[in-house]
UniProtKB/TrEMBL annotation:
One of its GO terms (cellular component) is cytoplasm. Residues 50-337 form the Dihydroorotate dehydrogenase catalytic domain. This is dihydropyrimidine dehydrogenase (NADP(+)). CDD domains: DHPD_FMN. Its EC number is 1.3.1.2.
Length: 341
């Protein structure tokens, strides 16, 4: 099992924080042009038209299934389309699924009740789940099948690779051949094999992020969204780097690094796998205020520095109601992602 290694730094102005190496060198956009962000102005006589066009992609509504368990396979993604979701982002894939070992149990819950209580509303989830452990060939076959059956619906592939230009290029090529409409780059998984320079290990290092985004955007022919980690001091810094390095959009936030709690009966952290545990990703209602703050930070930066007609922001974090989604849209998000369990 892997954990995310983060270095603490100490300065004269603050006691501690996560190290962040951010380059401010900007690059011109690659040749993927003509992508716009706007809401439809036409309305039917019976109900409002919620359709949006984001980076040239037409969605029937701005509500998107986020990368995770609801995008694990063909069956659940098909159900999302049938139920009317605006787009589906599949669970993250990489070239070699054999290196991914998902353990059981891998989830823990936080309840609005005393520690250890089995009662009370669930307000937080923690997971130590890694990316897809299904063979890439299987996932690609299902992407192609979905696009054949739903040619007018938006399917987005989430991808993550090691610090290897050739691997990124091969993965992008194979994913695009299935007909997916866009790609979301997972620069944000808090416990996703950082020893291989994957996930948040890239999203927390702006110099590394700039280099990898350069590889990706030189290869990709469909819109690219960079998914940002909240486990840094200023999330607008890597978001700026991703957009300046050619990405059409950013998505935020992924889960927050956490330890859910200690079982006071067993004296072990949760979730516990054969007596062991590790920090994981915290999500659900309890992270919503944090996500709002991070999304606001990115939105302000994008409004000040980027052309809003050509760039997009997809918001994630503790969305359980239409009101939760509306809050993100009011802060400047073009789409809102949810990962229902």
């Amino acid at each position: 099992m892997t954990t995310l290694s983060m270095t603490q730094i100490r300065t004269s102005n603050s006691s501690s924080g996560f190290s962040l190496n951010c380059s401010k060198k900007f690059y011109e956009r690659p040749s993927r042009v003509g992508f716009k962000v706007f809401a439809s102005e036409t309305q039917s006589s019976s109900e409002p038209d919620l359709s949006v066009t984001v980076n040239g992609l037409h969605l029937p509504n701005p509500f998107v299934i986020g990368s995770g368990p609801p995008g694990t396979n063909y069956t659940v993604m098909k159900r999302a389309f049938d139920e009317g979701w605006g787009a589906v982002i599949a669970k993250t894939v990489s070239l070699d699924a054999a290196k991914v070992i998902n353990v059981t149990p891998r989830y823990a819950r936080l309840r609005a009740s005393p520690n250890g209580s089995a009662k009370g509303e669930i307000i937080g989830w923690q997971n130590i789940e890694l990316i897809s452990d299904r063979p890439l060939e299987t996932m690609l076959k299902e992407f192609k099948q979905l696009k054949e059956e739903y040619p007018d619906r938006i399917l987005i592939a989430s991808i993550m690779e090691e610090y290897n230009k050739a691997a990124w290029e091969e993965l992008i090529d194979r994913v695009e051949q299935t007909g997916v409409d866009a790609i979301e780059i997972n620069f944000s998984c808090p416990h996703g094999m950082p020893e291989r320079r994957m996930g948040a290990a890239v999203g927390q290092d702006c110099a590394l992020l700039e280099e990898v985004c350069g590889w990706i955007n030189a290869k990709a022919t469909v819109p690219v969204w960079a998914k940002m980690t909240p486990n840094i001091t200023d999330i607008s810094e890597p978001a700026r780097v991703a957009l300046s390095s050619g990405c059409e959009g950013v998505a935020a936030i992924n889960t927050i690094m956490s330890v859910m709690g200690i079982n006071l009966n067993t004296l072990r952290p949760e979730p516990c796998v054969e007596g062991y545990s590790t920090p994981g990703g915290y999500s659900a209602k309890a992270v919503h205020p944090i996500a709002l703050g991070k999304v606001m930070s990115i939105a302000k930066m994008m409004k000040a520095e980027f052309d809003s007609e050509n760039y997009s922001l997809s918001a994630i974090g503790g969305v359980e109601t239409g009101g939760d989604a509306a809050e993100f849209i009011l802060l400047g998000a073009n789409t809102v992602q949810d990962c229902p369990w």
